Amino acid sequence: MILITGVTGMVGSHLADLLIKDQQILGLCRWRSSTENIKHLNLNYENKLKKSSLNIINGDITDYKFINDLLKEYQPEEIYHLAAQSFVPESFSSPFATMQTNIMGTMNILESVKQCCPVTKTFIAGSSEQYGTRTNQIDNDNCLNPMSPYAVSKVTCEYLAKYYDQYSKIVFTRAFNHEGPRRNRAFVTSSFARQIALMEKGKQEEILYVGNLNSQRDWTDVRDMVVAYSLAMKNYENLKKQHMNIGLNISSDTCVSVEIMLKMLLNMTTVTPKIVVAERRLRTSDVTKLHGRSSQFRTMTGWEPKIGLEETLKDTLNYWRRKIEKE
């Protein structure tokens, strides 16, 4: 059985899509989380687990007793820990909540694995934000330089992973930006796509609000990213032998500015909005460039991204068009 925390999020739901074909999945989410991203799956809220369904349990990763009892009861073979406060701007306004969720939530998972099921393989999702701004392409051996509370929390989680790896089987990767359908509206690709979809329906005046368009990011499709996560788990033994199960980059290895990404989206619509920089969309401490190099991960796992940025953006825009249509 596989446990996925944060199963209702963009990444968690796509990972469930990938793994549910031949696995029994236990999905953990907060009671107030929307199940929209996973409602197309065969959801099961009963106590008796069903192999052909995604078995949903409501709970909080910051509750150690709950997590400990959960792992003691279900003894999962694998855990994908994806639940987190992952929106960088929110980490500035809510630093305590970010640290509580990301650090203590991760520690609760790792300590419970150690105590209840040490043979379980556990995947912890890290972030390219741990590096901070780099002018050159980023290798795995570049120094970490977190520039936000979110990034600090992820650096801390990586050190927790290194510590607990002596007691159980831990995989920790540093994923660069991953986008696609089901992305929360607060994130840049979905924010732009949603605004365009609203304009197309006449529900928003033709003004598109943006933040820093000069920022450059390494974009990977979320559907490629979850394949990378599953391959990291499958190749744990090989990664461990090479001492690379902690901290490997996953990226498209191509860097594109937010401005170019926006132009790509605008080429997919007939609306011609005025572009307005909104102060609230500018970050207190902005990482201006993140360009990854994932050659080590690719060599060790055989992973290659298959979905280009244009397709990612097209699918994201169509996702928001469908949502706006239903509103």
Write the layout of secondary structure elements.
Blueprint: E1 2-5, H1 10-19, E2 25-29, E3 43-44, E4 54-58, H2 64-74, E5 78-81, H3 88-93, H4 95-116, E6 121-127, H5 149-164, E7 169-175, E8 178-179, H6 188-200, E9 207-210, E10 216-218, E11 220-221, H7 222-234, H8 236-241, E12 246-250, E13 255-257, H9 258-266, E14 274-277, H10 295-301, H11 309-326
Parallel strand pairs: 1-2, 1-5, 2-4, 3-4, 5-6, 6-7, 7-12, 8-11, 9-14
Antiparallel strand pairs: 10-13
Helix pairs in contact: 1-7, 2-4, 4-5, 6-9, 6-11
Q: Explain this structure to me?
A:
- The protein has 327 residues and is an alpha/beta fold.
- The chain has a domain at 2-181 and 219-252: Rossmann fold.
- It is built from eleven helices and 14 strands.
- The chain has helices at residues 10-19, 64-74, 88-93, 95-116, 149-164, 188-200, 222-234, 236-241, 258-266, 295-301, 309-326; strands at residues 2-5, 25-29, 43-44, 54-58, 78-81, 121-127, 169-175, 178-179, 207-210, 216-218, 220-221, 246-250, 255-257, 274-277.
- Helix 1 packs across helix 7, helix 2 (64-74) runs parallel beside helix 4 (95-116) and helix 6 packs parallel to helix 9.
